Amino acid sequence: MGKKNIEIAGASDGTIEMLKKAYSLEMTAFHYWHYIDQYVEGLGMLHSDFFSESANDELGHAKKVAFRLDQLGAKATDNPQNWAAESGLGNLEPGKYLTLRSALEHALDFERYAIAHYNELAGNTQGKDHVTYHLALDLLSDEAKDEQDIEDILNRLEIS
Ligand SMILES: [Fe+2]
Which of helix, strand or coil describes residue 79? Predict the structure, then answer.
């Protein structure tokens, strides 16, 4: 942790909690994509790279969030059993969404949830905690891209 960092960023109420929630959200999303990558059925096999890359992306996000928490003198929740509740996503139950369409439609829900969360984090830190603010924007644009990519795949599934 950095003292000056905490002194400057300390003004933003709720930031630590929002970052902890973000970590749990990313780890929950990571496992979802990872699980889908292992067990997706039918046409989904053609998108294996997309699932594994999405899993890696979420893991990368979790790492960035954990790094920022550390700078602020806090730690992410260490118990995987608490991630579903802390993330606000609940248990994503990837085993119930193993067809390509259902996997992607379910994922759209949590990608949009992540977009809303990072938008809120950005609003909470803007003009106060610049480092967290930039992290929020970085993650927000990544999640927005994920949403677009998923929508694009779903649109291509339409047969006219
Ligand atoms: Fe993410």
Answer: coil
Domain that holds residue 124: 3-156
- Residue 15 Cα to ligand 1 midpoint, Å, equals 17
- CATH code of the domain in which 30 resides: 1.20.1260.10
Distance (Å, rounded) from C-alpha 152 to C-alpha 146? 10
Q: How many Å lie between the centroid of ligand 1 and the Cα of residue 41?
A: 24
Q: Is 159 helix (H, G, I), strand (E, B) or coil?
A: coil
- DSSP letter assigned to residue 94: G
Cβ partners under 8 Å of residue 151, min gap 6: 108
The pLDDT profile of the chain, 160 residues, written as one tens digit per residue, is 567 766 665 646 899 999 999 999 999 999 999 999 999 999 888 888 999 999 999 999 999 999 999 999 999 999 999 999 999 999 999 999 999 999 999 999 999 999 999 999 999 999 999 999 999 999 999 999 999 999 999 999 876 5
Q: How far is the CA of 43 from the centre of ligand 1 (A)?
A: 24
Q: How many domains does the chain have?
A: 1
CA of 160 to the centre of ligand 1 (A): 33
For helices 130-156 and 48-71, what crossing angle results, to 10°? 170
Spacing, Cα 104 to ligand 1 middle (Å): 15
